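Work package 3, deliverable 3.1, input record:
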Amino acid sequence: MIQSHDPRMNRLGLPDAPATAAAKGALDQFGTYEAFHQKKEGAPFVYVGPVHAPEADVAFLFAKEQYSRRFACTGLWVVPTAAITVTDYVGDQEWAYDSLPLLTNQQAAATAPPAGPRSGDDTAAEAAYAAGEEDYDIFHLKKRGKAHQHVGKVRASSPAQALQVAKAVFSDQRPVVNVWAARSADFLRSDDGDRDIWTTTPEKKYRDAISYKVQDRIERFKAETGTSQAD
Amino acid sequence: MNPTLDLLYRLADDQLILGHRNSEWNGLGPILEEDIAFSSMAQDKLGHSLQLYSLLHALGEAEPDTVAFTRNAPQFHCCQLVELPIGEYDFSLTRHFLFDHAELLRFEALATSSYEPLAQVARKLRGELKYHALHANTWMKRLGTATDEAIERMQRSLDFTLPYALGIFEKTDAEAEIISSGLFVGEDELRGRWLESISKVLAQTALEVPDVLALTPVLGGRHGQHTEHLQPLLDEMAEVFRLDPTADW
Amino acid sequence: MYGSASTHDLPTTALTGLENEDPILLAEFEARINRGEKIEPGDWMPALYRKQLTRMIEQHAHSEIIGSLPEGTWITRAPGFRRKMAQMAKVQDEVGHAQLLYSAAETLGKTREEMLTDLINGKSKYSNVFNYPTPTWADSNVISWLIDAGAIVNQLANAKGSYGPYCRALDRICAEEAFHLKYGHDAVVHMATGTPIQRKMMQEALNRWWPAIMTFFGPSDKMSVHTEILMRWKVKMASNDECRNQFLDMYVPKILEIGLTLPDANLRKNEETGQWEFTEPDWEDFKRVINGDGPCNAERIAVRRAAEENGAWVRRALLTPKAQYVRPLA
């Protein structure tokens, strides 16, 4: 057995020369979900990164601690990576919607705004939903190296159409380097009642750099030992 | 012991010892993301114990560090459930599930405690404990309905752990006064709520739940009688602290 | 916590594979980097860029997860609430950093499973310093402060690199490292200015760790064709010597001001050149350790392997038949 300085390892009883480990299966750590957080009420949801998880509920548990354990957070969404449709990436000064296939005039008319998300007693919208249209969440990347940000929802009958609708709805937003679209139904979202799971986050000062103030101690030490003169 | 102190010591010692135990998983968890989540909850438990020891300090007891790092096993009031070694992940998850349900309900009840400083702490921790219970329930439901291997493991862990979990509700001599003074609803009441709460979740799994109240509880912890695991845990935890008791670390 | 993308183990041949790349795409790729734009996962990229970045981010990820172990050694023994909770949070962060970095590497096409398999079979490298033990609490503090400080020098440089997902991960990591650095400094200062027992313990730990710290950024870079290309592509952002020199500039005074000494009689700053002079680290020993023969290599790998094996049933249980692997998006 390997003797460790770590008592936990000695309790594990690690074998001395383990045999070669078998390769991990392709899904040994599951598929991936993408997570988005909201820093404060009213702020847009912003992409924070992926988690590996078997199901959305587990993905939510994981994303909550991996991406929102430190800083203020008021909401969290997770969605399967596979559920997101991605446009081409374009240059920092360009508009990613320009890379979409061009529509015929007829198609363009069919996707013209207003085609926002479900609201109140909109009978046209109800008819559209009944005909199979759904809400999609749209995310923009404004600059390469930054994070995708939620810009709103559109109604469409396919991801490709959702991007076309978004092109019309968000035509005033530029530049856009990349667009993500995902069916709203595919997200697992925290609701307002869950917000208290982040209540104590700002109080966990032991993991904040600012709670470690040691300059006074250093000055006192220097004064006592006279090293300040030696500097 | 004064009923407030009696109650606070039990709560604080449970949180400290289980937080310590669960921290042993950090870096060794079954999935990276789970490793992170489990560590957060262990930190939370340490944080709870610190807040509770601080209430004790305000009532004239020693500093939290002194109380946590210098007592020996017979002076601890934790239930034996929390001191058991981490074992395999099925046991640690089952303990987390059984303990955290009791913890959530206990703090819910304490939110209206007649001892206002404690009630304040309890109210503040509500959301944090909600996440802990959500985590525990999700795992219990997932593993309790998964492969035969997982169900068998979880069943074995549940059967082993339940008698220890009943030890959470062991009463002390102060119980009558704790209830009559409005400090807390009492252990019997809590146990009833807990049983209802865990049963709801377990009913959604393939696990068989025995007649819990017919089991023989593992008692003694609240009276300073502990398993052989607690003293070595304390010695390990205080190894550095005791190197130089005069030091500021 | 990662020191350097050590280029010393790059092929010394002048062949880079660039001859086989489409010259127009290559020109567009380089023009984008020259404009200061980041490369994102959907972009065309040369095979060498993908390969070198994958290797570097993967090594960085391994360094985080293995790097959690020397400090994890003291997680159950940290003295007092303040240290105990912070030590837990720090070890947790290292695991979190590994998760972020594996995710960034996955966007380049290598799965987390492949990376972890390579790690537990000893096929991958990680920062060599983590093959040394932490026999006392003070050793853990030295890592928390000085290894993290070194890592920050390197990571701040890399955060200005060209690959978007790596930059995003590093931004987050650097924000968290700010806590590590302050926490580590705080712990070292308390020891170094504390009781005689504490001071002795800290000085001994520093003496043990200093040679390893001096190797943290890797040997001087040999300027090869590869190195030049990787710097042009903003994969490698600063030379190993530059990082080491910057680290010494920032931290030697902070070490000395709290009464600690450094176990290298030749260590001094040449005020004319602005460069630090020091006893050349034993690079032969470094090579021996990085190739598997260090005091803790076997343990580090065995621990990771035990974690994987002990958790296998959990992962088997949760895997649903409909699960499909998709590369993370960004």
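Residues 3-243 of chain B form a domain with the Ferritin fold (CATH 1.20.1260.10).
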